[in-house]
Amino acid sequence: MKNVLIIDASPMFREFLKDKFSAEKIAVTVTQGKRDAFIKMISSLPELIILEIQGNLEGVFEFLKKKFGDPNAVHIPIIAVGPPIENQKTSVLAQFGVVKYFTKPIKFDVFFESVGYILKIAFSMDATPCMLDIHRNGNIIFMEIAEGLNREKLSLLKYKLAEMIETGGMESPKIILMMTNLDLSFVDGQNLELLLDNVLANAKVQTGNVKVLSFSSFTRELISGHPRYEGIEVSTNLSHVLNTLVDSSSSSSVSELITDKILKSEQHEDSSSIETRFYSDSGTEQDEDSDTVGNVLRIALVDDDKITLKLLEESFKTVGATCDSYEIGTEFMAGINKHKYDLAVLDILMPGISGFDILMRLRSVRNEIPVIVYSQTTQREDVIQALSLGAKRYLAKPQKPEIVVQKAIELLHGKI
């Protein structure tokens, strides 16, 4: 049986790895602290070490030097995960047997591809197309699932949700599960139960605080007839769901409520270890350095206001992004045939084709570029229409350009 040693992993990351390795019949040894890690490494001589770096690198280098000096352990490969570090330090890690370094949050399809290559096994990975995004504002967690139900991502969701609740100190989290683009049937029943069970796996999540947005009659029937899901409400109306979860006494309208709770999503996941988006979601070819993919971004800016375009372009340049600016929507639609964009920032009110038209055309050609709508219109109908057409975020003008960039980083989950 293959044996993997996991060192200093955060609880959520550790538990997810244990579950995944157990399903593949891989023995797992877990340890905290470099001194104990060295003893367990020598006693078990694992085929692979997975090391999470959480603090400074001094203790890590000391452990690696000690491992390097032991003839029985020197050839054990290491996969390290941690925050972005300088290229010089990455080179030093490589000298001591670190074969891959993944920055957090980790895209696990690439991660397990590397693990499988080292252990000479093929991990079973569900290839079902699925886009899963999760963010929170205050005590509300928004989840959006589109295209399909991928079991790998549904399993990750349990740990991502637990991590978010723990780091946010949430005592009574409220969940909005948006699945308006999924038309499910009885063949999806097992995966739908996996999704709901993973949402409810955390003891702090109560069924009465879970709302599902779905047009699927099967989804409604499964939830209403299932004793484990008693209290979960299924609705087709976003405004109704928000009103049932949020104290709207301080808001004069549903429009303000949506603006407060959706348009102004807060960034709380800076230290997240769990990634619900995979590298393969981009549809690009993976290469030998696929764990570093996403460090260079290409952004499409679509707005008829030249000043807005200039301000956004200058701000995106500060994070190393390349920007293509379009004042006319038809030019942008032509541009997506020439370039692969990581993200688009889109205005709604433009001459010619509107932002709504662009969102509909992107959907019709199955282009999955993430879109942030950045517009002056904040009317309830416009917000809901943009989100239902596939926009991932809706920001109300005016905002500081740095805020738009921050929301883009949040949406891309650590690609830069």
What does this structure look like?
With 416 residues, the chain is an alpha/beta fold. It has 15 helices and 15 strands. It has helices spanning 11-23, 34-44, 58-68, 87-95, 108-119, 151-167, 189-199, 217-224, 238-245, 254-263, 306-317, 329-335, 355-364, 380-388, 401-412; strands at residues 3-7, 27-31, 48-52, 78-82, 98-103, 131-137, 140-146, 174-178, 210-213, 233-235, 298-302, 322-326, 343-346, 371-375, 393-396. The strands form three sheets. The chain has a five-stranded parallel sheet with strand order 2-1-3-4-5, sandwiched between helices. Helix 1 (11-23) packs antiparallel against helix 6 and helix 6 (151-167) packs parallel to helix 7. It is globular and about 70 Å long. The protein starts with a strand and ends with a helix. 37% of the residues are buried. The model is unreliable at 248-252 and 284-296 (pLDDT under 50).
In short:
The protein is of the alpha/beta class and 416 residues long. It is 38% helix and 18% strand.
- What's the gyration radius in Å? 23 Å
Count of runs of 4 or more consecutive helical residues:
15
Instruction: Kindly name the structural category.
Output: alpha/beta
Low-confidence stretches: 248-252, 284-296
Give the biggest beta sheet: 5 strands, parallel
Order of helices and strands: EHEHEHEHEHEEHEHEHEHHEHEHEHEHEH
What helical percentage do the residues reach? 25-40%
Termini separation comes to: 37 Å
Mean pLDDT: 83
Q: What is the total tally of β strands?
A: 15
Shape: globular
- Spatial sequence of strands, sheet with the most strands: 2-1-3-4-5
Q: Into which percentage range does the β-strand content fall? A: 15-25%
